[in-house]
Fold:
Amino acid sequence: MSNVKRTRVAIVGAGPSGLLLSKLLDDHGIDSIVLERRSREHVEARVRAGLLEWSTVELLNEAGVGERMMREGLLHGGFALAFDGRMHRIDLEGLAGRPMLVYGQTEIERDLADATGDQVVWNAHDVAIHDVDGSAPRVTYSADGTHNELRCEFIAGCDGYHGVTRKSVPTGRIAHYERTYPFGWLGILADVPPVGDELIYANHADGFALCSMRSRARSRYYVQCALDDRIENWPDERFWAELKGRLPAEQAARVVEGPSIEKSIAPLRSFVAEPMRFGRLFLVGDAAHIVPPTGAKGLNLAAADVRVLHEGLVEYCRNGRTTLIDEYSERALSRVWKATRFSWWFTTLMHKFSDDAFTRKLQLAELDYLAESPAASRALAENYTGLPFAAQRRAD
Ligand code: FAS
Ligand code: PHB
Structure:
């Protein structure tokens, strides 16, 4: 016997895309229920993204969850490329007219979870979606020992790359585009001051390194590692030595070491599923696309999908028009593919793929060109800070 519940929009997944969509719909008086398989504590503890495009900052403020972000976030007007023992600053504000904001995904999750209240069902198991091609889609799930059926008008698949919603689409109706990379990122979090005021992306003969941060007192560092590497092989001492070995001497000398409070290895992949809509089911964020974190696009793309989808759902729920939801997949994918290209390009430029000397020479030549050419740096800055949104077709 199932408990039957009703809502207008069933959202699977309480990551940033699921919670942000629910909050924006709620602000427009549109009822939603979010089904999350993990606990709130587990979701908030995941250390992931750290860099927000200004369009993401604006959307979080529009959703009314930006107060702490604007108070604690760090404005970044540029970042540095380190290569061949030298540094070159990419002036984001001067070249693209907008900054980035450093504010951890864990903090965004907390701000959103505080604001979304009791429409989130944590620890929801065995989520399954049904009848997405009809006008009465359903989601079944179990929670607190009871089996439930959620009847709705739309389903948003915000359940990430490993979620259930994309996998529910029959293989003949969905196309997958994928590229995997022959290395991973070993990341650590440490309560030590960052090496500088801005991020440093380092291309080195031994591999890529990234100096990032969460605050002026908490640093986030990454080094490229072997795909099959394990964190057991990386005691803190080895990590710090490898990081400093991949930075120019002056920056290496400024690295403050300390005990890691989080250490993890993430694989890198480029993945896009097309289309992103199947009847009443919409795929959002990592459920539809994954980018290598080099370009800091993952979380920002998820927010961009939410922006486009919520506009369409609000239009439909207010006046029955389907113009914007009919455009969702095309508009979202336009931005997804440009960000996928940029993240692939930046990953290819900055990482060690092999010992091939010719490839390395090409990388250094392109970095040298970037340092000399305002046009090349502007292209990098425009993509890094986020491209403008595809214009909506005239809503009839
Ligand atoms: P998420 O994966 O965040 O959320 C999906 C949610 O759905 C999860 O809470 C999951 O528990 C839930 N779920 C899954 N299956 C379910 C089911 N069957 N039923 C119910 N719930 C289910 N991006 C960057 O920009 N910079 C980075 O440095 C960066 N680092 C990353 C490191 C790692 C290890 C990973 C995995 C991702 C990283 N990302 C990074 C990308 C990341 O930030 C994502 O882009 C962002 O979390 C996307 O948000 P969502 O689309 O909400 O998906
Ligand atoms: C991070 O701080 O986690 C971060 C920053 C920039 C990136 C990737 C990750 O490109």
Summary: The radius of gyration is 21 Å. Residues 108 and 181 are 28 Å apart (CA to CA). The mean pLDDT is 96. The pocket of arabino-flavin-adenine dinucleotide (ligand 1) is lined by residues 12-18, 35-38, 43, 48-50, 105, 124, 127, 158-160, 163-164, 266, 285-286, 293, 296-299, 302 (CB under 6 Å).
